[in-house]
Specification:
Strand content: under 5%
Radius of gyration: 28 Å
Low-confidence stretches: none
Mean pLDDT: 95
Largest sheet: 3 strands, antiparallel
Strand order of the largest sheet: 7-8-9
Distance between the termini: 66 Å
């Protein structure tokens, strides 16, 4: 063999970077580019089930009783490869369900247990999710048996519910219907840190003031679900921890009573694991070698004993009966004085002073051995913070009230991201309507659509008033937690009626007209709002020389103030709306990135975002009637002029101020239009420009109109789950 042949024979037979991220991606080369991937992250390419598979229909065929009976048997069927604490997997399954649901945050509705995302990075490898890979693998026989009729997402939450029931809690209810995703989520910002458990100072303007935590984050450190169990930045101080707990749980939609109930109820069962050195553990699942087969944190000292597990580093149970849901947590926390000690893994934990031997929990593997119970810094916060202490004292005086509060808080925790009750599936769906479900009464359908449209047309409102009101009502929809949208007409209630982005004076004028029309016709105000927007679009289509009927479905209802948790709706207020070329103030984040975020929450693809924005510009629907991006002399007609003029090489473009640009005639230098970054990104970004060029073509003017109407209808019906 020649030297050259010998050298060639050792070359790698695949292109480096083709199979992994070792090659330079476009974003690595040009990190300032707008990354559109989040708009297409869960397309059909990642889904093995095919476009015709509908999980929400499939799960209705499930034998619920059989699955739940199998789940109950699983709880006490301890496996040699991962033995259960005290022979009961309840604590492990509750932690899995809790950590799946507990990533939810109110600010953007992202996170939560509704997608089965805990199977994928980064969540599957977060330090706080240590050894939950074992819990998921324990569920595999049930997933294998019931197949397509049960999703991983539903299995995770169901496991937590059944675990509590087998430990003596009467749960509040349960809903099936969480469809799985098949790829890691790219749309969730978990923080800017580059290392796990980096000091929480990085997330705060001032760590001593928890409300200065960066939005939309809720957890105090990268890789944690809530707060550090050892204390702020690992330094015990229950009163400081109490403030972090309050802020963190508040950002996850829980008030003080719900927070105290969840803390006590969560720590009434199970244990922490730190009986050994974390240094001995293998890498997390995403970093483990192929022979680990998806398992991480390999523990060479396990020796088949549950008591030898190492997870959080803290070691011990909270109560004397950690497989029973009882009042033991309160009896232990308030029945003893506590002192700081180190676990075998070196973590700070609180242990009782002079505890009676019979009050100690037995070893998780050997019932002949007893250990001190433990409390985390967050547990001590329940005792030392005056507000939390008062709530706990109320719980202690009324155990039935505590059980009910916890059951309701657990239900809220595990169902908060499922959307309205109309989406719930299964025999255990509670009858009671809960305010955090954003209830909406059934809307009227016994009215004549054309009569309503005629009255709107005769009311003297402008096309812009019609379209903007409908848009502002519908744009609040978040696919992340299925909240917001036009259904309910909450745009007429606090806080939405006063949001700056809704132009309150204009809104009040239009709503006064719509309320009268609703009274006269029997239609809901919500339906009138959408019909008004549709009428405006039809007028604009006609002005462009086409005839298109904008589809409409009756049946929206009108929510009332007492159906609306106004405080929780504060988080839905738009800080920017690129579709109306507006933002509340200047932000560190680029305007086009804020546009992308809103488009993703609304469930839009990049082409849909493109056609929608171009249409909104020529309709003249900018906030405050500004003319930035209105690249047309036919304002109010649904033409493709925005794209035609954006891509016209007879123009030049130059910056003239912060987020402000001029479009000038190349020959004369005369200013033709002004624009923002949100406008010009559709000509500068190579992908968006490709879409813009499609709509700028001479033969696609009608396609533009039809595509705009289709996407407009999608936005108006985004929250109409009854139509899906």
């Amino acid at each position: 063999m020649s030297e050259e042949q010998n050298q060639n024979s050792g070359r790698c037979p695949v292109m480096h970077g083709g199979l992994t991220e070792s090659g330079k991606s476009n974003m690595a080369w040009w990190p300032e580019n707008l990354n559109l991937d989040i708009l297409h992250q869960h397309d059909s390419k990642t889904n093995p089930m095919g476009v015709d598979f509908d999980y929400r229909n499939e799960v209705k065929k499930l034998d619920y009783e059989a699955l739940e009976n199998d789940m109950r048997q699983l709880m006490t069927d301890s496996q040699e490869w991962w033995p259960a604490d005290w022979g009961h997997y309840g604590g492990l399954m509750i932690r899995m369900a809790w950590h799946a649901a507990g990533t939810y945050r109110l600010a953007d509705g992202r996170g939560g247990g509704g997608t089965g995302n805990q199977r994928f990075a980064p969540l599957n490898s977060w330090p706080d999710n240590g050894n939950l890979d074992k819990a998921r693998r324990l569920l595999w026989p049930l997933k294998k048996k019931y197949g397509n009729k049960i999703s991983w997402a539903d299995l995770f939450i169901l496991a937590g519910n059944i675990a509590y029931e087998t430990m003596g809690l009467k749960t509040f209810g349960f809903s099936y219907g969480r469809a799985d995703i098949w790829h890691p989520e790219k749309d969730i910002y978990w923080g800017a840190e580059k290392e796990w458990l980096a000091p929480s100072d990085n997330r705060y303007d001032n760590v001593a003031k928890p409300d200065t935590m960066e939005n939309p984050l809720a957890a105090v450190q990268m890789g944690l679900i809530y707060v550090n169990p050892e204390g702020v930045n690992g330094q015990p101080d229950p009163l400081k921890t109490a403030e972090q707990v309050r802020e963190t749980f508040g950002r996850m939609a829980m008030n003080d009573e719900e927070t105290a109930a969840l803390t006590a109820g969560g720590h009434t069962v199970g244990k922490t694991h730190g009986n050994g050195s974390a240094e001995a553990l293998g890498p997390e699942p995403e970093a483990a070698d192929v022979h680990e087969q998806g398992f991480g944190w390999h523990n060479p000292h396990m020796q088949g004993k549950a008591a030898n597990a190492v997870t959080s580093g803290l070691e011990g149970a909270w109560t004397a009966n950690p497989t029973q849901f009882d009042m033991g947590y309160f009896e232990m926390l308030f029945g003893y004085e506590w002192e700081l000690k180190k676990s075998p893994a070196g973590a700070w934990q609180w242990e009782p002073i002079d505890i009676k031997e019979e009050h100690k929990p037995v070893d998780a593997s050997d019932p002949s051995i007893r250990h001190n119970p433990i409390m985390t810094d967050a547990d001590m916060a329940m005792k030392m913070d005056p507000a939390y202490r008062a709530i706990c004292e109320k719980f202690m005086a009324d155990p039935a009230y505590f059980r009910d509060c916890f059951a309701r808080a657990w239900f809220k925790l595990t169902h908060r991201d499922m959307g309205p009750k109309s989406r719930y599936i299964g025999p255990a769906v509670p009858d009671e309507d809960l305010i955090w479900q954003d209830p909406i009464p059934q809307g009227e359908t016994n009215y004549i659509e054309e009569v309503v449209k005629e009255k709107i047309a005769d009311a003297g409102l402008t096309l812009q008033e019609l379209v903007c009101t409908a848009w502002d009502s519908a744009r609040t929809y978040r696919g992340s937690d299925m909240r917001g949208g036009a259904n309910g007409a909450r745009i007429r209630l606090a806080p939405q009626k006063d949001w700056e982005g809704n132009e309150p004076a204009r809104l009040a004028k239009v709503l006064a007209v719509y309320e009268k029309i609703a009274d006269e016709t029997g239609a809901s105000i919500a339906d009138v709002i959408v019909l008004g927007g549709n009428l405006g679009i039809e007028q604009a289509v006609k002005a462009a020389g086409y005839e298109v009927h904008v589809p409409f479905a009756k049946g929206r209802g009108d929510a009332s103030d007492d159906m609306t948790d106004s405080e929780s709706f504060d988080s839905l207020e738009p800080l920017a709306d690129g579709f109306r070329n507006w933002q509340k103030q200047h932000y560190a984040v680029k305007p086009e990135e804020m546009l992308l975020d809103r488009a993703q929450l609304m469930g839009l693809t990049a082409p849909e975002m493109t056609v929608l924005l171009g249409g909104m510009r020529v309709l003249g629907t900018n906030y405050g009637d500004t003319k930035h991006g209105v690249f047309t002399d036919r304002e109010g007609a649904l033409t493709n002029d925005f794209f035609v003029n954006l891509t016209d090489m007879a123009n030049t473009w130059k910056p003239v101020g912060r987020n402000l640009y001029e479009i000038n005639d190349r020959k004369t230098g005369a200013t033709k239009w002004t624009a923002t970054r949100v406008d010009l990104v559709f000509g500068s970004n190579s992908i968006l420009r490709a879409y813009a060029e499609v709509y700028a073509q001479d033969d696609n003017a009608e396609k533009f109109v039809n595509d705009f109407v289709r996407v407009w209808t999608k936005v108006m019906n985004a929250d109409r789950f009854d139509l899906r």
